[in-house]
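Re-running the complex after MR caught last week's input typo. The corrected sequence lines follow. Everything else is unchanged.
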Amino acid sequence: MSVLKLRGVSKRFGATVAVSDATLDVEAGSKTAIVGPSGCGKTTLLRLIGGFETPDTGTITLDNVTLADGARAMPAHLRGIGYVPQEGALFPHLTVNDNIGFSLAGTASERRRRIEQLMGLVELDPSLGKRWPHEVSGGQQQRVALARALASRPRVVLLDEPFSALNAQLRAATRAAVSRLLGAIGVTLILVTHDQEEALSFADQLVVMRDGRLVQVGTPVDVYRRPTDAAAARMLGDAIVIDAELSGGYAISPIGLIPTDHNGADGPRQIMIRPSQLALAGRNDEGAIALFKGVVVGREFRGDFYVLSISVASEGGERSDTSTELSIRCSVDDAPMIDDRVGISMRGQAHVLK
Amino acid sequence: MLASARSRPAPIDPVWESNPFRPVRSVPRWIIACATAIAALSLLPLLFVVGVTLGTPLGTIAGLLLRGRIAELLVNTGLLVALAVPLCVVVGAGLAWVTERTDLPGRKVWSVLAVAPLAIPAFVQSYAWTSLIPGLHGLWAAVFLSVIAYFPFVFLPTAAALRRLSPDVEEVAASLGLPPRAVFMRVVVPHLAPATAAGGLLVGLHLLAEYGLYAMLRFDTFTTAIFDQFQSSYNGPAANMMASVLIVLSLILLGMAARIGRHGRLARVGPGATRAAPRNRGKWTLILATLLPLTATVCALVVPLLTVFRWLALGDPAAWGLWRIASTLENTVLLGCIGATIAVVAALPVSWLSARMRGSLVRVMEGASYTAAALPGIVVALGLVTISLALVPSMYQTFATLLLAYLVLFLPRALAGLRTGFAQVPPELEWVAASLGIRPGTVFRKITLRLAAPSLAAAAALVFLAIVNELTATLLLAPIGTRTLATQFWALTGELDYAAAAPFAAVMIALSLPLSALLYWQSFRAAGR
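Corrected-run output:
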């Protein structure tokens, strides 16, 4: 069942189009990640759903109740959509307990019980309740912000880059905890991020946004493997994009014949290969499909592995000066040196871009 | 599909099921209406003065303008501004450099002492100096007293800008091969210029508005002439005409200040600046660096304070009439409190809009308030007298008119403070509160207003202290028999009873010291000390 529906939602600020014709379904209890570069309109989209902005055109409905129909909209405080902004935005003049209990009515003891329950839910030590926001760590602030949002029993929770202020280690841990805790109570989550790793690992549904448009919507695996264009491909990770001529499901490229996932019309197209599909030949060849030969031209140490730049000369030799550079990872123990000649094997298929 | 594999969504709170559905504006209309009304109210006195002028027959206008008296006043006022403002800039900026960028011993103390003269009203400065040197009068006396009374207005912004200027920028300039003098001219001076120039123009506006200081020196400016004209004959057209000339002069200075404000704002690039280490500038520089703050402090602080104390000591405590001092203080504090409350409440809609909304409407409203307040108190008072006599004679010389004058004159002080306060409340906090189902009014009260409360209090204090030291408008508009500290002091010095006036000066200075402290703290807090 689809709980939140956006239909043709657009919003502009003066001459700038922030969100353009956005159509999206979010299922109840699912986790949706909206990923895009800064300034792509993803935060505006989130604010339109939360009711902090009203769309110029388009409708937003939640459980078949209209939240916004053009500029006519339900005020934010009546929507029942929770919001966790960047860095938590805890009320600085209230203690942790009072932040969590901000929206709670009832007697003092009822409130206290509910606050304790919420703190347990986000795995916060109840002893922190009397502290001030600046007296708890960044990760704890995020959990307080989450507990505060959950206190009013929202149907949907919006997370606006909630982990960006945390250091790398804490970010992964907090993200995993949030995903687990909220998954358990079945709240619908919408996360905005510019971090591809965060988007891929967090979401059931991934939305790629660029220049105000929703470029692609799908499962993380699908969007990662089969991006619509080169920009979407690079947004989610390293990508090798090559110009090629399609023929019968194969790509005739400067570096050789490459199998693709394409079964449509033939013609000139761009294909995309993830570096993780490539490996040095002769080391782990089982299942390899294509073989290229090349020369190592760059060698960058990254700790756990080397990133090699390998120049693959064009086949046929009619223009020997043209070559394609592929970057692949290889283990530290047996990395070839610069100018070594190596073979490359490839797994899976290249993806044909639109 | 996904939902079926998960537990049911949490139950929904009943408040959302009522589902009221209505057009939403990001800013409620009634707030815009209130803000517009207040901005229009600010401009009312100005419009009336200009209106009366425009309603006067052309022949009368020519007759009133083209005479020796106007030329004399123009020369006096022009010379005063042309001489005193540059001197204020030299003294103020020099003090800022000495206290921020040399290794002068006791820099912090000198820095505080350079701001302290703000606690002494200008007319108390001239009282102190004329009672010390009875023959003091004329242009040069007026220039001298103007400089010592107003140089802190240049010192404060310049010192704050110097403190904000990261030494990295100067070091980079030096690394590009610029000698120290070139670094100063090409890096330091352009950085300070907007702040210093804005301070200088503020001094100019104050000089145009100042009454007490020049009246005591018997030095005629437009403001003193309008006052005399009004007192002697209630002569509408003549006073109005001079007021119109004064308005033009003020608007010229205000226009220059606005240009600086628009083009001269220097953004700080990158994270917080480190403070420059004070540097040894050599023996002769050090001697000069000591002489400047020493002289300024003696002239602007030691002499007036000693004179006030001398008169206090000479006076007979029995003759002071402690009851009279107490009742005047009570009047003043009451007026100050009511005036400050009105100003802060009136500033709420405009300042909230300007912190939360962009657009020309907000700029126009802010501009109206700032323009009105840049006009000399005499013009505002004259406008209100004209209005009350023409429309509601029963309003003339009532507390209501007086409080309205205070509102027009001091609204921008409240506006500036409140806008900063509101701007420091991240809108995310309001959104979060709304997403928790809290009504907008409650969000404003429990989050926005609560977090802006310190700025609110500071703004109210600034308005309060401005009212305590206000002389010109209070003299013209206060109900008969109502005396504030300033007008009582003025009446007594008018009778040459300097000893009886001294306690009132002392009380004003004591009340104003926190004002200086607050200004000092605000300027340098922004500079990130």
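None of the earlier attempt is carried over here. Chain A has two domains: 2-234, 238-352. The CA atoms of residues 277 and 306 of chain A lie 16 Å apart.
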